[in-house]
Amino acid sequence: MAAASIAFSSPRLSSGNGVAESLASSRSSLAGARVKVISSPPAAISCSSSISPSARYDLNKFSFDPIKESLVAREMTRRYMTDMITYADTDVVIVGAGSAGLSCAYELSKNPNVSVAVVEQSVSPGGGAWLGGQLFSAMIVRKPAHLFLDEVGVPYDELEHYVVVKHAALFTSTIMSKVLARPNVKLFNAVAAEDLIIKEDKVAGVVTNWALVSMNHHTQSCMDPNVMEAKVVVSSCGHDGPFGAAGVKRLKSIGMIDSVPGMKALDMNTAEDAIVRLTREVVPGMIVTGMEVAEIDGAPRMGPTFGAMMISGQKAAHLALKSLGMPNAIDGTLKAGYLPELVLASAEDDETTATA
């Protein structure tokens, strides 16, 4: 879709209005930017002081339907336990629901034949993608990764070599809402992957526990874990935090890889290409993606740019599809007419291609 060129006009300012002058200056600095319009804006909503006669309830006489507290408890418990039973043995387990993990889950979820469990130790998924750098709001995405934003439906300001999402949370909340709406994905947040299941030198799943239990083993006697078997494990544990790079660190501790040197100092141009290029199946049954790639390979960190997280997640998804023996964009097995959502956008234009 062609980007729309929008001219920013300054509002009429009164003398000495510092806030208005600052706003006008900010808008002026964006005069050369193009704003990508993803879809037509919704029809204008008319606001009035009274509720429409067609409203389904009256806010002046509002009352909820009755319910028993035990019904609430049973409903939540039944559904969660059903999910635990369903995903005790699944196709793909993604460890870590940051920007790379969510992008991987989004891409995998396009294939309705693949069941995906996402394990996230935090109560709030999203990792570091709720904010840009240094607790600022804007998210910077270098081209051509903006094509992923187009697909997901995240608007942005377009500049020559990069785009800017006005708030990182707009990307994170948008992709999360799409992932959670898919019938073949379940997010288990506040759950930690404490260990790996290894069978015949192949990763075959993860060992799970409530995150708060995992972080407090030293305060109690033994609190045993649970398990999720999987045909493929995608490790996207990132680099910071109590579970940073937990997947590859565990591989090193059991001798399946030689070292985890940790990421090098920042170099955006080198880092983002390296993270995508080095996203791979590091041992049989386990794919690494996102900043965990930098940890295992000693690649530079990239700081407050997020394109590599998205594309690395997409690549990890197609590597997982390849491992499952399904059509994917890595080995060119995607055929015309087969799940067109899985066909990746081309970096050169708005056409599509089935090659990596």
Overall description:
The chain has 356 residues and is of the alpha/beta class. The protein has a domain at 90-324: 3-Layer(bba) Sandwich (FAD/NAD(P)-binding domain). 30% of the residues lie in helices and 20% in strands. Strands 2, 3, 7, 8, 9, 10, 11 and 12 form an eight-stranded mixed beta sheet that branches. The radius of gyration is 23 Å and the shape is globular. One of its GO terms (biological process) is thiamine biosynthetic process. Belongs to the THI4 family. It holds the Pfam family Thi4. Its EC number is 2.4.2.60.
Q: Which CATH architecture of the domain at 90-324?
A: 3-Layer(bba) Sandwich
Helices, by number, come to 10
Helicity level, as a percent range?
Answer: 25-40%
CATH homologous superfamily heading of the domain at 90-324: FAD/NAD(P)-binding domain
> Mind telling me the C-alpha Rg?
23 Å
Strand content: 15-25%
Order of helices and strands: HEHEHEEHEEHEEEHEHHEEHHEE
Low-confidence stretches: 1-31, 38-49, 347-356
Structural class determined from secondary elements? alpha/beta
